[in-house]
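hey all, quick one before standup. I had two proteins in the batch that finished overnight and I want to keep them in one place so we stop losing track of which output belongs to which input. First protein below, input sequence then structure tokens straight from the run.
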Amino acid sequence: MSADRAGQPITMRQVAEAAGVSIATVSYVVNDKKGARIGPEARQRVLDAVKELGFRPNALAKTLSSGSSNFIGLVADAIATTPFAGQIIHGAQDEAWKHGYVLLVANTEGDLAAEEAAISMMLEHKVRGILYSTWYHRAVTAPPALHETEYVLVDCFDTATPAPAVVPDEREGGNVATRLLLNAGHTRIAFVNTTTPSPARSGRLAGYRDALQGAGIAFDPTLVLDAAPEQEGGYAVAGRIRDLGVTGVFCHNDRVAMGLYDGLRELGLTIPNDIAVVGFDNQEVIAAHLRPPLSTVALPHYELGAAGVRVLLGLQEAPTGAPLAISCPPVPRASV
């Protein structure tokens, strides 16, 4: 609550005296007590006194009396320390604020004890609900404590629970990436996928196949290569890419594309004149600063966070029995 000129907090008693009403009446007005019989004139006097004195209600007391708060919790495993995935927090925070809520963020770094403590603290503060998020799209087992409130899974899903989930549309993203190459006239296109089983691995491959089918091009499994999902993986397959005689390559992520750049350059090939390259993720620190800048597809982290809040507040529906899939937009640059 605000302070008077002597530095002491303004109290309900002072508001009551200024408005000429009882302390109980002030409490009913500032806590918006339903069913309280307060005349419009008395209510207005209280509101005027609150404004004039700068009185600020005790948020904790208000939470305890109402049974809920204007807080939304977000429990994350590592996204606060992952630059591009930190946009999930940004999107959730902006959307929460838009609807009168404040985001409480706990970054657990995957520590189960910290996760349990964070959820417990949020439940004690009677949050409106909790977003439970991971820094990359994967299956999870939702912590049991989440079942004590409303919750939404963000960038992850749990097949064992009916809880709503919001995830990137990996399949559509693979389609979008491949179409960047198709639209530039390429018809013999390789896909460098990852060796790690994940929704991204299967979804992006399915999208690649969808795009080829849509263009009337038969799928050729010999043009799909598996590589470690980092720079070394892309570098290692450069020779095979050259030998396949392709004119375009869709890489599982931007780090793989960065390695492929290095490998193709050492083989005397130029991008995009000899081979066009498309990545995935839109990691700005990589994609925008390669030479030439990398065409890619963005993971919609900001929108994942924002959509998670909307689903939690009932402002957006999530399909029953399946996650809400968020579109992955193309980011065309000079590598195609």
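OK second protein, same deal, sequence then tokens:
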Amino acid sequence: MGIEGVLSQVQHGLIVSCQALPDEPLHGADSMVKMARAAQQGGAVAIRANGATDVRAIKQALSLPVIGLIKREYEDSDIYITPTLREMEELVEAGADIIALDATLRPRPGGCKLKRLIDYAHEHGVTSMADISTLEEALHAASLGVGCVSTTLSGYTPYSAQMDGPDLELVRRASELVPVPLIAEGRIHDPAQVEEAFRLGAHAVVVGSAITRPQLITQRFADAARKAVKSIYGDERQN
């Protein structure tokens, strides 16, 4: 699938991020394939997955495009989403249709350059997705030839906007000013926020934790339950 083809396929659709870290209950390719299949049945147009093993397994099981990334920490950098050429190579080999990578302006491990990673994706016919935290980073990534940009990291760098919900102002400004498709992602918790992101110009919207991390979903409801009980009963403890 060509670069323009995969971006056209996800346009105006919901992308579901199916990820579970090693310390989470659903960690493992088998669980992520089941989660991805459920997302597909629910209407997702693509899946975002972490790790070559999960990417490969989901590609084999589903017909949807897969956005692949690899979270890997290096001692000399704060960047951990597809930080180096090593991760790019693994994701290309796994069959990722789009490769998401941290495109913030922070130094990469070992002095690796963002431009080299973007070029590598293009050389292998794979779309690159720049995960950014500010408009400046989005514009910089676009100038380097990235296929699309995503607001994934807004609020996750110390210098970007800090808020509980999605950075919809960044979605609006980037949609207007960045000359490549803009993907809205990050702390999108309810359908109304998805609708607003599209109204502000998003090419597609990614939702993750609100759909695919049951421990966090449960925590939101449990916190609401505790708050309600405290409001109704004060400090009484109910059996």
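Flagging for whoever picks this up: The chain has ten helices and eight strands. The mean pLDDT is 96.
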